[in-house]
Protein 1
Amino acid sequence: MGMLATHAAATKSNGHANDRIKSYAPATGELLGEVPVMGPDAVRAAVDRARRAQVAWGALTVEDRCKRVLRFRDAIVDREEELTDLLSRETGKPLQEALVHEVSATATVATYFAKKGPEILAPRDVPLALLKHRKAVLHYVPRGVVACITPWNFPFYMPFRDIFLALIAGNAVVLKPSEVTPLIALKAKDLWDQCGMPADLFQVVTGYGPTGAAVIDAGVNFVVFTGGVATGRRVAAACGERLIPCVMELGGKAPLVVCRDADVELAARGAVFGGFSNAGQVCISVERVYAHKDVADALTKRMTELTKGLRVGDPSSRSVDVGAIIFPKQIEVAEDHIKDAVSKGAKVLAGGKRVQSTGQFFEPTLLGDCNHSMTVMTEEIFGPIVPIMKVDSDEEAVRLANQSHLGLNAYVFTKDRDYGERIAQRIEAGSVLVNDVLTNGGCPETPFGGIKQSGFGRVMGDDSLREMCDVRHVNVERVGIGSDNPMWFPYSDKGLSLARKATKLLFGGGGLLKKLANIV
Ligand code: NAD
């Protein structure tokens, strides 16, 4: 664990402008590279350059922007092996995860929005119920400079999930990647420059929290923040202070409800994959399992077998299922959760401790006999631990699933799809999947985001592309009513009596408004 100390020290710097960040491979301890810590002046200069570049980009048609975005997507796909290799080394995740959950998921988002962008952003006529003599049209205009402040768990997909949308909407982008995984962001920037994209339109500013704070302070027009709840509060406050609109993608505590009639094999496999994929460092990881008492024993037995069968280790080896812990502090967090749970009666069914090696590894850990007195059931884990709690009924499972300050994703397993859908509608979360886990994280068609302290606003889904724009409502007369408008100054008895008659006519028994506008 010598590596732990080095990496932790590297992430604990004071953030002065002349500092450097060293990025180490969490699986091997190898030093992969260094990046500068950018101070407020450098950040402001980057935002200014982006703002200047946005003018020409924003003036292109949406179709042209989409074509250019696809050029960048093609470069990503062409250089997939290079990107996947660096991703796997910088995060310690298996190559298959780096490819499927990051590079390929990014290409999916780019492809969907490049195809649908022109339609989603096309001006929209809004039929007016009353003012039929006028025409209202909504135009989606670029906001200007969009800041993406991102975490370390999906250091390629998470930024680009939002960057592609910001670009298609006509904005410039300033990315502040996590200090834990800065190299992949710079690699993406190189690729951007090499494939002939407008260099200044996409900027990467490296550093710690203060660099992110400086981005907000530099006068960006929209912020998409993905990270922890505590940081999210600070970022939202900074945006509020400056009245900058923002989206907050924060933590999760996804429950997985295994109903009485569930397919045990499917639920066990889903829970194990959803809990240990990316070593559990996913905001939508399965973080707690509520198992109906009729299936709990069989489920626990099968999950224990599956968890014990997972191969943990250096992701450069093809035969690894669970890679390294990216951020060393998460190992201590995992240990604290397990200690707390065991002291309150939980049983360690598999794993339970860090792996003695030069890399940062933790055994995939399954805990049985859990309850809500334990932090592992109530606080975000963000590591490879899955706690199981036996419940008396599906109702109890729903009640406990909703007993959380977080509400990002949730999962329900049942053989009865209609029943599953009804249960899903009662779970307080941004997304609920029936008989599946994680997949909505990479589904561009549907909105992704949380409720409660998991944040607000949505990324992905057609509305999120519009959200990257200011809405400009342009309103034009179809038929002129002249300058003698009785509703304008000067007010008069004639105007008042007309308004009275109109109010009765529209909302009274005759319901003219209803007829005019087909509304009640
Ligand atoms: P974090 O909150 O520590 O950091 C996120 C980013 O914010 C980093 O780039 C960091 O440098 C920056 N930052 C820190 N202080 C800042 C400040 N004052 N102003 C501006 N920027 C600042 O999060 P993390 O540890 O990198 O990531 C883990 C967390 O992210 C987990 O809680 C996880 O659930 C969450 N997450 C959420 C989603 C989602 O889509 N909802 C996705 C992935 C991760």
Protein 2
Amino acid sequence: MANDASAVFDTLSPAVSKGSLADPFTPPADSSLWRKNFLLGAATASYQIEGAVNEDGRLPSIWDTFSAIPGKVLAGDTGAVACDHYHRWEADVEMLASLGLEGYRLSIAWPRVMDAAGAPNRKGIDFYKRLLNRLKEKGITTFVTLYHWDLPQHLEDRGGWLNRDTAYRFADYADLMSCELAGTVDAWATLNEPWCSAYLGYGNGHHAPGLANDRFATQAMHHLLLAHGLAVPVLRANDPASQKGIVANIGRGTANSDSAADQRAAHLFEVQHNAWILDPLLKGSYPQDLFELWPGTEPLVLDGDMETISAPLDFLGINYYFRTNVASDGAHGFRDVPLEGVERTQMGWEVYPDGLRDLLTGFKETYHNLPPIYITENGMASDDEVTDGRVEDTQRISFLKRHLAAVDQAIKAGVDIRGYFLWSLMDNFEWAFGYERRFGVVHVDYSTQKRTIKRSAELVEKFLQERKAKA
Ligand code: FCB
């Protein structure tokens, strides 16, 4: 596609005030976002918001262990308290509903709902029952992720995702949850971002459990995908009315030059970030180029595994944040070549909405069985502060508008995209970056747990009200 999504929109003035006519967010009249069945919601994850890590029988997770190791998380932060959502969930649901958000994507903490022998932990399960029932009472569409990285530590002690048995334990967990929560969940996602679990967790060690070996990464990925594949039929049997899917993070890699070597590097970047997950799910095989990048790392795959992994999905969740500019590393890989003079966020990630559109339209070409898509995460971190009770998160407003425009362009190019979840509902524990990076559309003051609605959330709310009024 030739036109640049970011060029379509006005530069924002920080002076735009509440209620001003110059609305810097509302999509243009011809945007698909005006369709009232395009779901607009927000997302969170258990370890990032819940806190209460020792309460009501919750067991330790790999993130409790990892964040306690000095040097692993910025400023030594941990998820021990986080947004204290475990105690404040009622007010948080009120806040979500008051913003008019139509969907909420949350995750369940596996160590909260099962003991080490695999028996149900009633108190933990009841927490999610209360939460999901309240969300349904409010008319909010619920997307529930079973695994957003908080593996029970006792399973890691037995090898974690390097142990094939963990995939079977995951299927048991999916069984329990779907029996208990059927009827309150509109869509189940088995895993959030297996790339991060496998590569950051076992390949470079930046995330829990902190192991660093490419061969571990490919084997962990295989067991994660197997866990997904084993869980899908269980979810279908226990909760037939809901949708079943998985959430993948995708990365755009662009070549630093026209040279064949750099073009190849960009291709390999996308194989490593996208095809490594999407090929097994949608084609039933691993991309062979992955093993050019990481020679000798083929995982152990048993007969029937690839069929299990590639069973049809009702939806594919896509998380997108940024692009990476790469060049050949002179051997069989790629190296990052950060571009100068581009817009970046507090994470240092480049703002590049075209990447989202281009990847989505590319997937439609590559995968003929591409399921309906939900953008299950998109958003940005900024150094937001409350001034006179307000948070003017100008860059985020522009970011969201441009990325929603990219989604609209992909829809118009024929990609079946049914919804979009902001990451995140509120500032929270941003993994290895702790509490410093603020991704929320609601600000959290961690010393008081006070929530302050940011300007971005007000504008999303305003748009949703207008859309409702038109329907
Ligand atoms: C994604 C994670 C999510 C959040 C965002 C910023 O990789 O799924 O939990 O941390 O990044």
